[in-house]
Fold this protein.
Amino acid sequence: MSSKIAFLSPSGRSLSMRPPLAYLSLSAFLEENGIGSDIVESKGFSAKKSLEKSFEKLHRLKPEIIGLTCLTTEVLEARAVAQRLHKEFPESTLIVGGVHPTLRPQDLIFENNGIDYAVMGEGEETSLELVQKILANDVSGKTMGKVQGIAFLNGKKLEITEKRPLIKDLSVLPSPNYGKIDMDFYTKPDIYCIRGVPISGFYFFTSRGCPFACQFCVNKNLFGRTIRYKDPVKVVEDIEAVVKKNGIDGFYFYDDTFTVNRKHVEKICSELKERKLDLIWGCETRVNLVYKDLMVAMKKAGCVQIDFGVESGSEINLKRLQKGITVPEIKNGFKICKEVGIRTFANFMLNTPDETEQDVEETIQLARELNANVSIFNVTTPFPGTEIYDRLGGVPLEDYETLGPNPTSFNVWLSMIETKYKLSEHKMPLGTLLERLNKEFPSIHSLSFGNPKHLARFLNNMAFLFKPSYIAKLLKSKHRKQYLDFLLHVSDYLKAQKNLEESEDQ
């Protein structure tokens, strides 16, 4: 099938081990409907080198349509890339989708920017109809105004069409087009798939949507508050296909709240056991959706870790954040996981709106008490689609170059937070607070084995690696040589990864 559309991955993600799941689904859906596609990315290089290599691929493909995606932190990069694409591929139509175009299409669709259309929200059905119109050269303003879920310039005016209904049954979607990306890269052993556990793994969705209303989260405005599911049999078929083709030893369910539907989870666990895939896996859920019998079933099916958004140890702060959980529920969820033998990953938030010094101290005390295998403290940043962003009245796009995942320097990032986006009520310097927390809850990059607290945290995190079942899995794995190399050189790997992430001019 000849390729009509090329999906270009942002070059800033060139080192990321997380695959472009949206592109994989879009590509499969288009090809099922007779439209050939490619996913263009160049992995393992600095952002600058990755971009050049990707443009070389685009020149070889000469696609009629080029698709882009971007987060809020990537908008300025997307604009620059769009300008270059418009210059080098003047005959190609440019489409952008993803988080930011869904929430603020006006930041990408304007005169002389080069981008022709934005796909807003769930992309499969909208992209198919839009691409069909473009390929048929049926692109009048009147025609495009009837395509649900897009934004475009109708003359000189931004037109946002009627919202497209969400796909009710995700089982109608074909299996993702895994052959379109470098699966050898994405399935290399690393510690990011199931965070903190070296494993050759991959990511899978079983649902879309989140029914909760957390003040800091944008997801409810992307896939809606109604959860829609994929048939558990199809979910596990997709997993099994990647096992057979790429020999993965584990995976991560990328759903917002995996255990919100017990029957769905139970069916997936049953299917995993029936097929005897012998995989380990992780997921994310809420502490008030942890049930002992369900955790036992999940563990028997291979679950080794659950990631939780704890956010705060303060009841008052949890209510401010509209988290919908309580401190006793947090403690109970972690207690059950510990009893069952499932690792825990705890995410905490600092710099939340109106946060007091007492809120911070209660959060730190709760982190100590929970003693999760991994504890991460995140500094709250306002993003479009959240109540926190609306409360501030917006954030200039140029600020996200500093607030994004790869700021020019930690000090520059910290200074911007302190001077422009200090949301908390307390006057505690964030730099001092983060330094204090890092002494007790060190990141993987700042471990000091001469520090007793660091050593205790490390052993708590790494105890899993010495389990006979995990060692046996590595020894019989298709990737066993890669595991050995990874474990022998893990410190060099982490240093190299950190250096590459911080440098874009190499």
Remarks:
- Residues 47-61 form the longest helix (15 residues).
